[in-house]
Write a structure and sequence with these properties.
Layout: H1 35-67, H2 96-104, H3 108-111, E1 119-123, H4 129-141, E2 145-148, H5 155-164, E3 169-176, E4 179-187, E5 193-202, E6 220-224, H6 229-239, E7 252-259, E8 262-272, E9 278-282, E10 286-295, E11 306-309, H7 312-315
Parallel strand pairs: 1-2, 1-3, 6-7
Antiparallel strand pairs: 3-4, 4-5, 5-10, 7-8, 8-9, 8-10, 10-11
């Protein structure tokens, strides 16, 4: 640079280094025809996006710390749950009509402690090994439940026998290709009957870091997000399967968590680490339910009167519309 247009050698100034990892605003990895190069550039772009997001998060955190008490409240992120379409059947706990219905419905004797739950768990005709093991493990979760494997006996004949033997509920586990895929829950003697699609079944041996076998203590029951009249009825059906007086000394808890009309069942045990810290240990089994129909009375596939039926083409037009 003898003409003086650039920095002289040894003056301590170096030309600026080119920036790396920056992509133009209109960058699209799909325009790259080489598959390996396209995948590599996509990973770099995702990494850059994560760095920018993390840097923005740190910047906002410093700004909030500098403002102190004057910092604005944190913005609530938009999710499908909090953007849910309002349902006019949402239950108000202080509603007199809801309280009257609860006092006179089919589950009122249970909540008034006039009846003790007695459950019969049965299967579809000639069940296979996985369904059999699932029923056995489900019987260890629900107290005072009995497993019966039917062979060719119709449900219309089973229900009168259950009523005669003072069973309060009937659970039927259906299967397809040796995998449990359906659950029918019928409250006896007058119904209602709910039909669920079952998925994501995991037995105890398939759960990682599972605890020891459950004890015979009556578990605590937790029902989450059953907010509508329909969801309230389903929640009361699940609650009526367990005795009303849980034995908290056993530290066991059965959870029915409703999220976007999918009911997730988990069975845990509390692990008290100290006076302030508590953990949970899953015992299993676990499964997911999706309500297909709610029928008045006991099971009757031909002449039964339905209160609610899930119709996909009519009801699933809006992702933010939920029924439970």
């Amino acid at each position: 640079a003898g003409d003086g247009s650039g920095p002289a050698p040894g003056d301590g100034t170096d030309p600026p280094a080119p920036q790396r990892g920056l992509f133009p605003p209109t960058f699209s990895a799909s325009e790259i025809k080489n598959k390996q190069r396209r995948h590599f550039m996509f990973l770099r772009w995702k990494q850059q996006q994560r760095k920018e997001k993390l840097a923005l998060k740190k910047k906002r955190k410093k700004e909030r710390e500098a403002l102190g008490d004057k910092a604005p409240p944190k913005a609530i992120p938009k999710t499908i749950e909090n953007q849910r379409v309002y349902d006019e059947t949402t239950v108000d706990p202080n509603d007199e009509e809801v309280a009257f219905d609860e006092a006179t419905d089919e589950f009122a004797p249970y909540f008034n402690r006039q009846t003790v739950p007695k459950i019969l768990i049965t299967t579809s005709d000639r069940p296979r090994g996985r369904t059999v093991r699932f029923c056995e493990q489900l019987a260890t979760v629900i107290p005072n439940s009995h497993v019966y494997y039917r062979r060719g006996l119709a449900l219309k004949r089973i229900i009168p026998q259950c009523i005669a033997r003072d069973f309060t509920d009937l659970i039927v586990i259906n299967e397809d290709r040796k995998i449990p895929n359906g659950l029918v829950l019928s409250h006896l003697p007058d119904g209602p009957t709910a039909h669920f699609r079952m998925s994501s079944v995991r037995l105890r041996k398939e759960i990682k870091r599972k605890g020891k076998e459950p004890t015979e203590h009556v578990p605590e029951v937790i029902l989450n997000n059953f907010t509508t009249r329909l969801g309230h009825s389903i929640g009361r059906m699940f609650a009526a399967l367990f005795p009303h007086d849980p034995q908290f000394i056993g530290r066991q808890v059965a959870t029915f968590h409703n999220q976007r009309d999918y009911i997730f069942f988990r069975f845990h045990r509390y692990i008290f680490k100290s006076e302030k810290k508590v953990g949970i240990q899953e015992l299993g089994p676990r499964f997911t339910l999706k309500l297909r129909s709610l029928q008045k009375g006991t099971f009757d596939s031909k002449f039964g009167e339905y209160e609610w039926i899930h119709k996909r083409r009519e009801m699933d037009t809006n992702r933010r519309k939920f029924h439970l």
